[in-house]
Write a structure and sequence with these properties.
The chain has 415 residues and is α/β, with parallel strands linked by helices. The chain is 61% helix and 7% strand. A six-stranded parallel β-sheet has the order 3-2-1-5-4-6. The chain has a two-stranded antiparallel ribbon with strand order 7-8. It comes from Hemiprocne comata.
């Protein structure tokens, strides 16, 4: 038995101790380990050993497993760092080859680049980052030029002795900001709620989420400057989400002082269902008038592929009433989707809330999407369009005139 214990100690010293020294483990852990191994041989011959000695062997196993886990974690971290370094070298080669690659790219953007499913998706993502970087440089250049021109104008004014009174302008801007903040604070208590549904992050890419947040920021600014603002709610809003990160990029320290309500709860938990109306372009029901007692919901989603039916399915799943804007009733619509941006929707709803005039409200629809406003009733326009279509089909004029005469005679009889 003593010779067996001596052999075990030699094996431990020759195999386990160098491994522990290589990976930074303590040496004083191993004398009890050799003792527990020798005890295991005793346990095979004599079963009268105490259970506390068995627990030492279990502890040894745990120590060994934790050491192996640390080694595997370090190996995985090394692999990840090597792949990131290889990706950076590849991007540097592409940039030197003349491709549209950003000069500075963060680790988060590099990981997103590596997660792209195809080579074309990687190229598109790099082009997006490159254009974003160019826009930032252009904006910075314009700001520097404005600053230089302002400083030059101030110096010129000092030389000629004509100084501009800019203190009044600053005082006016500060007072207007206070007035806007006071209106929004009042709307948080007495105003009509307006909900932005923030549950569409999984249906969008990173670029589309950034565009969505930019449109919501514009919507919040126009709502803040209006005479009767809404009380904006961000529902289904989760912290550490892409929405949250993009909002912090825009607002920075002002995000905590923003006069809105951001919650991770659903709007069905905050408001009664009979008061909620989900505004979606896919709804079969057309909105006739603006109701001040209802709570309108806007889906916070921007999709370049125009996924139809996503917001309508969300509203039907929750059992909510839906409505679409009456675009065809008031506008001669061109061919194309009837989806509007979030800031355009905010302008339309604010104008309807203040005036109730659809013609004024729909002026915020882009001019490229329609030919003009409807001046005649819809049934007359449909008849004239049907007449034009029959002429385009190549029918003879006499048949068309006969049909028109019959319809005209019927109208006279009815009168």
């Amino acid at each position: 038995m003593q010779s067996a214990n001596v052999l075990l100690k030699k094996i431990i010293r020759s195999s386990v101790l160098p491994f522990a020294a290589q990976h930074g483990m303590k040496k004083d852990l191993f004398p009890p380990l050799s003792r527990t191994l020798s005890l295991s041989l005793c346990l095979k011959q004599d079963n009268s050993c105490s259970p506390s000695e068995k627990l030492d062997l279990d502890a040894w196993k745990k120590v060994m497993k934790s050491g192996l886990q640390e080694v595997s974690e370090t190996v995985s971290e090394c692999k990840e760092l090597s792949t990131l370094a290889a990706a950076r070298e590849l991007l540097e080669m592409w940039r030197l080859a003349g491709r549209s690659v950003p000069e500075n790219i963060s680790e988060e953007q590099l990981k997103t680049f590596m997660e792209c499913p195809s080579k074309s998706a990687k190229k598109k993502y790099l082009k997006y980052l490159h254009l974003k970087e160019l826009y930032k440089k252009n904006d910075k250049r314009k700001m520097d030029e404005k600053r230089e021109s302002r400083l030059a104008a101030q110096e010129q004014g000092l030389e000629t002795g004509k100084t501009k009174n800019t203190s009044f302008v600053c005082l006016w801007a500060n007072s207007m900001d206070r007035a806007y903040n006071w209106r929004v604070a009042q709307s948080m208590v007495f105003g009509q709620p307006l909900v932005f549904d923030m549950s569409y992050e999984k249906d969008m890419s990173v670029r589309e989420v950034a565009n969505t947040v930019r449109q919501i920021v514009l919507s919040e600014g126009s709502n803040r400057r209006s005479a009767d603002p809404f009380h904006i709610h961000f529902c289904n809003f989760k912290e550490d989400s892409l929405y949250h990160k993009e909002f912090i990029k825009y607002y920075r320290d002002a995000w905590g002082r923003l006069l809105i309500t951001a919650t991770d709860q659903c709007y069905t938990q905050l408001f009664p269902k009979d008061k909620l109306i989900y505004l979606t372009a896919d709804s079969p029901k057309v909105m006739k008038t603006f109701n001040h007692d209802k709570i309108y919901i806007i889906g916070s989603m921007v999709d370049k592929s125009i996924k139809t039916g996503v917001s309508l399915a969300q509203a039907k799943r929750l059992g909510l009433e839906t409505a679409a804007l009456p675009l065809e009733k008031y506008l001669l619509w061109n061919s194309g989707a009837k989806n509007l941006t979030l800031d355009q929707m905010m302008h339309i709803l604010l104008t309807l809330k203040d005036t109730g005039d659809w013609k004024k409200a729909l002026e915020f629809v882009p001019k490229r999407k329609y030919c003009g406003f409807v001046s005649k009733p819809m049934h007359e326009l449909k008849k004239s369009l049907n007449l034009i279509n029959t002429l385009k089909l190549g029918k003879r004029q006499e048949e068309v005139k006969k049909q028109f005469a019959k319809n005209y005679s019927k109208k006279l009889r009815q009168k």
